[in-house]
Amino acid sequence: MVPEKAAYRPLVLLLRAAIAKGEKEVPSAEEIESLLKGRTPGQQSEIRYFLGRFLQQRGKSEAANELLRKCVEPTSPFFLTPVLAGLALREMEKK
Question: Exposed site from 52, 61, 70, 94, fewest CB < 10 Å?
Fold first, then answer.
């Protein structure tokens, strides 16, 4: 269960819906943009990271790469998410 007022509830619900539809299903670009709208820069960075990793696991490397690259842009004021995204991108390049 995800609490009703949890900040990341929409993300969890979006991922659960994709999982329920099958192992190849992923959120659409429109759903992702809608989820990011109105979020703080930190929340956007974290959401992009989690979605990027989800897309990567589902075989959508190009879309995952785009989301993860946005996490490591120098404008991001958050330290952990850019580091994690950078590691994920390196991992993807090795495959």
Answer: 94
